[in-house]
Design goal:
Blueprint lengths: L8 E4 L15 H6 L1 H7 L3 E4 L3 E2 L11 E5 L6 H13 L3 E6 L3 E3 L3 H7 L3 H4 L4 E3 L19 E3 L5 E4 L6 E3 L5 H15 L5 E4 L17 H6 L6 H12 L8 E5 L5 H8 L8 E3 L21 H18 L4 E2 L9 H5 L6 H13 L4 E5 L20 H12 L4 H11 L35 H7 L2 H14 L1 H4 L2 E5 L6 E7 L6 E7 L5 E4 L8 E7 L6 E2 L3 E4 L4 E6 L2
Parallel strand pairs: 1-2, 1-15, 2-5, 5-11, 11-12, 12-13, 14-15
Antiparallel strand pairs: 3-4, 6-10, 7-9, 8-9, 16-17, 17-18, 18-23, 19-22, 20-21, 20-23
């Protein structure tokens, strides 16, 4: 079995990594051409966002064919070459499996539309209510009703996301068999990592009913008990046969109790889970499309809950700040202007030394930030454009609506990777599908020659691979009421050594009182983003703006 605690995973959004054929879109050959950079990263596996055949209505999460590479990104020969080249540098491949829904241009949906009874049972098809209203009052997560007309029939089909993404009916054993076939196809090509998109919403009831409010509505299809049964089946029929498989479930609005079960090895479901609660602490009244400073105490409490309780229950967390669906963490939790470097290093320290498997999103390791576009016309993300129009309808000015989209758009993390300071950031020789910004200041070339963030990430990765207290140890939060510092202890029951981690989430100096149990103990410095001298731990410590410090106590 894989030691998940020693692994670090890098996420590549293929459309924005590197464009090898100058069509403005990143591709598989582009990734192959950057193998030397990937080798330098020293990661263990790469999670690739989908590059399967797709109309690209939701950037590839609307899959039309699970078995073919979209010509936009290359060919199957390119993919095979990628797997082979990555294997040479001991880097595994994690593919994104989107099984809650498929594209309405997928053969399954098209055959259902043509009247094929077998495939009609692949989807949630329901007639309108007697009064002519939609089958249920459910809302799509992208805005508007979650039902769309099924061709010229009397039926509607369920789509929890975009209307071009029809939800698959997992109650049908034939759907589940098709899903296993897809996973096994890619396993046969040497793939050992799988990330399952919104996998905890596959457990919808057979009989769908109206909801009473948005919160209760989520409970009708999220984290239902049958999801565990489906995952156990999927595990046994596919990736569970590989001793070296690594799987992660993207869990929408999940709970700790369910996440322990999803990721506890004895349950035979998944290796780990992504949860997003910590990335909602800057949502005003729980609403994503709003703007407010992040709630640090809420963030701390969430980390304490998820870290300590998952540890106690034997579950496993995927640790991350950034991904393709989130604005860059530096803009949300750091200071991208005055303290870009120090806050990037602080944020990395905060999660890389926690209990779990860290994920690095491309560009994060060089301190990339949100693009700060000046017009709504710069954005292409369907969710962002819908949100802008909705905010306008609610009476907000163009300027106000744009300010919120700027802060929360998924396009913030989808801008092309900054390789150098050229007009198109060295990503392409032609205008890219999404424009880079600030590549003069922030790019790989500059970072590798004169920066410190990339090297800092390298130190964090080395610590994880060599310190058993980090890879395999337990975790306990302390200084829980401190208004600026997130602090925790990593320990093992059979070791007298301890690692203490301190991270200052603000741009002001801050003095803390060290818990008496630690005072006067000799320590060495594991990592720090400011100059520190080892010695004996004093009763108080002063932390500089966005300072990160990890020390090892040697009693």
């Amino acid at each position: 079995m894989v030691n998940l605690g020693k692994k670090v995973i890098y996420q590549i959004y293929p459309k924005s990594f590197y464009d090898s054929n100058n069509d403005g879109i990143g591709d598989i050959q582009g990734i192959i051409q950057k193998i030397d950079y990937i080798k330098k990263l020293n990661v263990d596996m790469i999670w690739f966002n989908p590059f399967f055949v797709s109309p690209q209505n939701d950037n590839g999460y609307d899959i039309a064919n699970y078995y073919q590479i979209d010509p936009l990104f290359g060919t199957m020969a390119d993919f095979d070459e990628l797997v082979s080249k990555l294997k040479e540098i001991n880097v595994g491949v994690m593919l994104d499996m989107v099984f809650n829904h498929c594209s309405t241009s997928n053969e399954w949906f098209q055959r259902a539309l043509a009247g094929d009874e077998k495939y009609r049972k692949f989807f949630y098809l329901r007639k309108a209510k007697p009064d002519g209203s939609l089958p249920t009052n459910w809302q799509s997560k992208f805005g508007g009703p979650a039902w769309a007309k099924f061709g010229d029939t009397d039926y509607y089909y369920l789509h929890l996301y975009d209307p071009s993404q029809a939800d698959l009916n997992w109650h049908n054993p034939e759907v589940r068999q098709e899903v296993y076939k897809v996973v096994n196809f890619w396993r046969a090509k040497g793939v050992r990592g799988f990330r399952f998109d919104v996998i905890n919403v596959i457990g919808k009831a057979d009989k769908l009913v109206d909801s009473t409010d948005p919160v209760q509505e989520k409970s009708l299809y999220t984290d239902t008990p049958i999801v565990h049964q489906y995952l156990k089946e999927l595990n046994a029929a596919s990736f569970g046969k590989d001793f070296d498989s690594i799987t992660v479930g993207e869990m929408s609005s999940t709970t700790i109790k369910n996440s322990i079960k999803y990721s506890k090895p004895s349950e035979h479901e998944l290796s780990m889970v992504f949860n997003f609660h910590h990335l909602k602490v800057d949502y005003k009244n729980g609403e994503k499309w709003s703007k407010m400073p992040f709630d640090f105490m809420k963030l701390k409490n969430l980390f304490a809950d998820w870290q300590e309780k998952m540890d106690q229950g034997g579950g496993w967390n995927a640790l991350f700040w950034n991904n393709h669906d989130q604005p860059m963490a530096l803009n949300r939790f750091g200071d991208p202007g005055k303290y870009r470097i120090k806050s990037a290093e602080m944020l990395a320290t905060a999660i890389h030394l926690m209990r779990g498997t860290p994920y690095i999103y491309m560009g994060e390791e060089i301190g990339m930030i949100d693009p700060d576009y000046s017009s709504i016309n710069n954005y292409v993300d369907v969710e962002s454009l819908n949100a802008f129009n909705k905010l306008k309808k609610q009476g907000m000015s163009d300027e106000g609506a744009l300010a919120i989209v700027k802060a929360k758009s998924r396009d913030n993390s989808r801008t092309p990777m900054h390789w150098d300071s050229d007009q198109y950031a060295g990503f392409s020789k032609v205008k890219p599908w999404l424009m880079p910004r600030k590549q003069m200041q922030i790019n790989v070339c500059k970072e590798l020659t004169q920066g410190e963030i990339f090297n800092y990430y390298q130190k964090l990765i080395r610590i994880r691979k060599h310190e058993d207290l980090i890879s395999d140890g337990h975790i306990k939060m302390f200084l829980k009421n401190d208004p600026q510092i997130l602090a925790y202890e990593r320990f093992n029951l059979d070791s007298t050594s301890k690692i203490l981690v301190f991270t200052n989430f603000y741009g002001q100096e801050h003095k803390i009182q060290i818990p008496t149990a630690y005072v006067d103990q000799p320590y060495s410095i594991l990592i720090s983003n400011y100059q520190r001298v080892a010695g004996n731990l004093q009763p108080s410590l002063i932390f500089k703006p966005y300072e990160a410090l990890a020390i090892k106590l040697k009693p």
